[in-house]
Amino acid sequence: MKSKFLKVIAAVGILPLCMGIFAACTGTKMKSQKISEDKIVYAEADTSIFEMEETRRAMTSFAADLFRKNTESGKNSMLSPLSAYLCLSMCANGAGGITKSEMEKVLGLDMDALNLYCANLYSRINENKQLEEYLSTSNAIWYNDAYGIMPKKNFLDVNALYYGVDLYKANFRDVNVAADVNLWISKKTDGMIEKMLDNVNEKAIMLLVNTLLFESRWAQAGGYNRTNVDFTDSDGRTKSVSGFYSTGYSYFKSENFHAFKTAYEANGIAFYGILPTDDGKYGGKDVDFDSVIAGFDANEMYGILNGRQRELYMVHAMTPCFKFDYEVQLSDYFAKNGMPSAFDMWGADFSNMYETTDAFNVYISNILQKTAIELDENGTKAAAATVIVNATAMDPSQFTQIQMYLDRPFIFMIVDEVSGVPLFVGSVANV
Q: Which domains are present in the chain?
């Protein structure tokens, strides 16, 4: 990937039953057997579901909590709430009893509403002609046929219908499943995430995988001009780094945070740069950034994404160029934040996924996520300039001038504004 481009990738894998480790080797051809039929052709997304406060609150609450509790102090971090949400939603279709109730609560919707919402997200991303060159998501399920036990047909059918899964089966004793999964993920993420898994235990019963890929230039024709800017990192050290200046009219403010928005060519997708306000409890440049992240809760995120905009502001923004990868284990987080039974070897209820008995049960043993981002003054290759629709003449002298420089640790989001979904949420502590 050339440095002049912006590319964001995320991949999540859920391993419901995994009790050991073995070495994996690499390969270039998948050995797992694909058994899914041709993908369902989805209709255009029903965008009315994205306008419901219930769905917006559910996703915002999930995203904010996931981000706040899984960033690493003093380091650059990025998570994909959407990728984790879709993967968990697929898994939730196999849950029953208390496990189902817990997962519904964590995801913020009951299963009927959840599947409908996710199907429309899938359609919004993959069936939208204005987004197809910029954004894609893919889902897959691998199941272990070594035991002669098939997943329940309804579980597979529902995930095929609502999530368009690629379905694979393999004998995990004989086939290097990790290599197959890594190959599939690498293809779906355009090679940005090449090795998601080191190994898969032969006793694992199923893997659920989601990938998300975003690629776009800025809406500004020709991008912006690269220059040298000062950035003060989380340790208080100031250095000269590459960055760019932009001007826009979207400014958002809550009591403790303010943000600017920069549009992409990708229709409805925008970058948000977020800093503590100077007059809020996180004001000033000497604030502890960990406390800033801890304070960026669901209400703050929802407020920024849903209307706390002040009109007649011209924002002069500075954004540093940055590039990093991030990897996180999410098992402990979800076990401690609303769905403990799903990780209980004998207490988990995934009876809608497999026919469980007193001698055979299914549980989640691990959840992984990897992300990567590269951002600079240009963005990526683009097909159409359809994002900016300005039919009104404006006199800049009538706008209050706002200067907002990301010259110290900051939070950022890449958001699908049509659905209100944060595709990626991250923090930059060092450049």
A: 7-216+324-373 (3.30.497.10), 226-321+385-428 (2.30.39.10)
